[in-house]
Amino acid sequence: MSDINSEYEKLFYEALRIRLVEEKIIELYPDDKIQSPVHLSIGQEAVAVGLCSQLKLDDWLFINYRGHAFYLAKGGPLPELFAELYGKRTGLSKGKAGSMHLAAPKHGVMGASAVVGSTISHAVGAALASKIRGEDRIFITVFGDGATEQGTYHESLNFASLHNLPVLFLCENNGLAVHSPLGERQAFSLAAHAKAYGIESVLVEDGYDFVKLSAICEEILGQIKVKQRPILLEVKTCRYKEHVGPGEDFEAGYRELSEVKAWKAKDPLELDKRLIAKFTPAISREIDAAVEFAESSPFPTIDDLLTDVL
Ligand SMILES: Cc1ncc(C[n+]2csc(CCOP(=O)(O)OP(=O)(O)O)c2C)c(N)n1
Ligand SMILES: [Mg+2]
Questions:
Q1: Which of 99, 113, 116 to mutate to test the pocket of ligand 1 (most atoms within 8 A of CB)?
Q2: Taking a C-beta distance cutoff of 8 angstroms, is the pair 128, 165 a contact?
Q3: What does the pLDDT look like over 255-298, one tens digit per residue?
Q4: How many structural domains does the chain have?
Q5: What is the secondary structure of 103-132 as a DSSP string?
Q6: Is residue 43 in a domain?
Q7: CATH number at residue 123
Q8: CB-based contacts of 117: which residues, under 8 Å, 6+ apart?
């Protein structure tokens, strides 16, 4: 990292890096070399950056299929990410997992899944095991607003509360599950509802503000550690792209372009042209090297087919 002069610049750099990685994925996608569907986080980067700026290497993060931002913010290596997207042998999971199933245990990224809500209970189970072993670790499960309509979400909140587990339930509320707006799906308020399980909750409306999110996460993670109790953090955010894939789909009619424009008008990654110009060259060099690594890596062979799958 070059010439970073403040905490704001550090967080900005991390967020811009994630956005430029995903913009590179958009650029490459038509070539069909990326062997995986992609759910992009563009617009939502600040949530991952704010959280991960306060995590330690051995805090464990459980994410979902929209996971590039959290993987990168937690320190997951970039070349292995591109190689995984390309289906190459040098990928994180030797090309077998793809974008939706990122895992980098050495960096505390414990796994992702395409099954909505499924990694919420993984985090809770891991937290119980860790508590029994007497370890000092915090567990974070990241999920979308749609996942809160799954039974496993409710069971997990109940279990974590009952057993006093150090879990941060982090909901990235982009107001959408595929093409269904939140207002057509939920009669409850997430933050209020968590309290029914005895779980304290915090709501952040401005999910583009990585500085604010970093400060709030510092406070919340500190409380989880001291109290050994779960907390729910709901962050309102905005997905700029289509649900899955590299494009936009405003013509589908499930939301207005004006909503996204209003969000962009507050997004530092859209506004701060000075820092974009300052940091883009170094980040682009890093990204180009990672793509080159993926391009030049071998594909798995037939002998690799049944390894690491049991
Ligand atoms: C158990 C299950 N049900 C349905 C789906 C299909 N599906 C994939 S993503 C998605 C929407 C989830 O929305 P949300 O949790 O808000 O996450 P977002 O995509 O908005 O980040 C659905 C319904 C699935 N993958 N798994
Ligand atoms: Mg959603």
A1: 116
A2: yes
A3: 999 999 999 999 999 999 999 999 999 999 999 999 999 999 99
A4: 1
A5: -BGGGTEEE--SSTTHHHHHHHHHHHHHHH
A6: yes
A7: 3.40.50.970
A8: 143, 147, 148, 150, 152, 153
pTM above 0.90, yes or no: yes
Is 307 a member of any domain? no
Under DSSP, the state recorded for 147 is G
Ligand 1 atom with the shortest distance to the CA of 118: 1
Beta pairing class for 109-111 and 139-144:
unpaired
- Containing domain of residue 106, as a range? 7-296
Is 301 domain-assigned? no
Structural domain contains residue 182: yes
Round to whole Å and give the CA distance between 152 and 266.
Answer: 34
Please write the tens of the pLDDT for every residue from 6-54: 999 999 999 999 999 999 999 999 999 998 999 999 999 999 999 999 9
User: Which residue type, as a one-letter code, is found at position 115?
Assistant: V
Quote the CA–CA distance of 154 and 121 in Å, as a whole number. Answer: 10
- What does residue 216 show for φ and ψ, rounded to 5 degrees? -65, -40
Backbone φ and ψ for 308, nearest 5 degrees, come out as 60, 20
Percent of the chain with pLDDT over 70: 99
Residue nearest to atom 7 of ligand 1 (CA): 116
Taking the C-alpha atoms of residue 227 and residue 234, their distance in angstroms, rounded to an integer, is 20
Pick the atom of ligand 1 nearest to 243's CA: 19
- Residue 294's φ and ψ, nearest 5 degrees, are -65, -45
